[in-house]
Design a protein that fits this description.
6 helices; single chain; 2 strands; two-stranded antiparallel ribbon
Length: about 170
């Protein structure tokens, strides 16, 4: 089971990537494709990602840390969009979806702080547990989400800098 974020003595949360990501440089393109296909089938495919996204946004809709980030509270649309994103990446084996400009633009209108990132990770992990996500695939998925959430935080910070905003390392305004 993947580790949960570890609280430190100062109340901040340390993110740990568990066993980390392993290099796939030794794999052929065909082996990589097979790993992605095996992962997608093992985690439950499109039905799994729809169930995960639905449960996740049920949690977000009631969360005081994340709900203020959403201008429109159409949770069904947010859920459908997130599920399509995951299905595109894993089901269609299209990693370019991770760098879709619309994805980054959607996260550039607000400053994602550490508290937002930690809460997002907590809720995606809880959503997975709530729907009985299979292991070890879900643990692998959470490790990838730790990396992806860091990238979204960086995209939001870059946009904030471009707008002339100042902030501290933890994302609080400065």
């Amino acid at each position: 089971m993947p580790q949960q974020p570890v609280p430190r003595h100062d109340g901040k949360v340390l993110l740990v990537a568990d066993q980390g990501l392993q290099s796939g440089e030794h794999l052929t393109p065909q082996q990589v494709d097979r790993k992605v296909e095996d992962f997608y089938e093992g985690i439950g495919g499109e039905p799994f990602f729809h169930a995960l996204a639905t449960r996740f946004y049920e949690l977000v809709a009631e969360d005081p840390v994340l709900v203020p980030l959403f201008v429109v509270d159409d949770w069904a649309e947010h859920s459908a969009r997130l599920a399509r994103h995951f299905v595109r990446i894993y089901g269609a084996n299209d990693l370019t979806a991770a760098w879709d400009p619309r994805l980054h633009q959607a996260h550039s209108h607000f400053l994602i702080g550490r508290d937002h990132r930690v809460r997002w990770l907590e809720l995606i992990a809880r959503a997975g547990r709530d729907i009985g996500a299979p292991e070890p695939q879900f643990g692998e998925f959470l490790t990838i989400m730790k990396v992806a959430s860091g990238e979204m935080m960086a995209a939001s910070r870059g946009a904030a800098l471009a707008r002339g905003e100042r902030f501290h390392w933890d994302g609080t305004r400065g």
